[in-house]
Write a structure and sequence with these properties.
Number of strands: 0
Largest sheet: none
Strand content: under 5%
Distance between the termini: 91 Å
Shape: globular
Number of domains: 2
Oligomer: single chain
Structural class: mainly alpha
Order of helices and strands: HHHHHHHHHHHHHH
Number of helices: 14
Helix content: over 70%
Radius of gyration: 25 Å
Length: 401
Amino acid sequence: MTDFLVDLGLSHGLAVFIATALGVSVVALAGLLWTIFGIWLERKVAGRLQDRLGPNRVGPFGLIQTVADTIKIVLKEDIVPVGADRPLFNLAPILSTVAVMLIWAVLPFTVVWVGADLNIAVLYIVAVGALSTISVLMAGWSSNNKFALLGAFRAVAQLISYEVPMVLALLVPVLLAGSMSLQDIVKSQHIMYLVAVPLTALIFIISSLAEMGRAPFDLLEAESELVAGYFVEYSGMKFGLFYVAEFLHAFTVGLLMAILFMGGWRGPFAEDVPVLGLFYLLIKALFGYWVIMWVRTTLPRIRIDQLLGFNWKFLVPLSLVNLLVIAFLWKILPGTDSIGSFGEALVPSLVLLAANIVMIAGVGWLLREQGRRERARLEGRRSAAAVDAALAEAAPAGTGD
């Protein structure tokens, strides 16, 4: 594109600026248009998984239902609470959406279509992801509402907690590829990392679900306890921007899952025909997105103490052990510094897979033993209560007050 603009007579600096602006506009528009389709898709998938129809009235197969909802939310009245901090109140939903869109700037869609091939792309993703945490705190603080503020504090506790296992999971593909560039991580997957390190992929998807506030970790907006959480005072399109950020974040996690663990755009003839690479990436991303939708429509919400306890007592230790085991094996395995083909990657991948199977089996055994101890504790409590009740019934009349 830059060369074409230069041939038209533009200076090189101006051509680079115009090409960059067009690329940013196309990527941003694609993300926002995807949200309209993604909302319809998620409603349809949820309907099928829960044995109902989903949208089926507005347009063929209900395809225009999301458009109707968009028009409705745009026309709704924008209400700002009395005493609210207007600049922060208005900026929070915008920052929430921008935080997700910034991740797309470093995603390699094909072998040649990538906005910015940063050599610290993984670190960049962690950094811009923190903007969503700031937007949550801004929304709760600026609303001048105690329920919004409590919801923001609880949401920030959740988001910061689950960033720890997410970062530890992200270190694994960085370690295996020897680079933080997403393009290098894709090119190094002669065998998908999902096959070699499935436990890492599972940790990543679980922590990502908590980061985006999806069920069973949807305590960011627990209606039964905090009305609507940190954005209880938002209405109209400002509420709509939070909604867009959530659905766009879900698909973005699917894209990251595809890039980090499923080979991204890699596939037959993908390097020769970039459009094929984009097709492969979208198929893999939709698989990851479907897993997210499946979990959301299946599992119930958990309590905040269960959520934080699961993270700090289980997920973080598991992430640390997983990282240390993989780092140790990758260091002692011969030839891991110069893997350039499927054959060279086969033996290290099988070794890592065997280690993952052992770790998964160990985790299963620990969970089973914990379940047995908990059941024994509850049965002992019930037995003690039954004994106390029997003694109370057998006590002579008139001995009590």
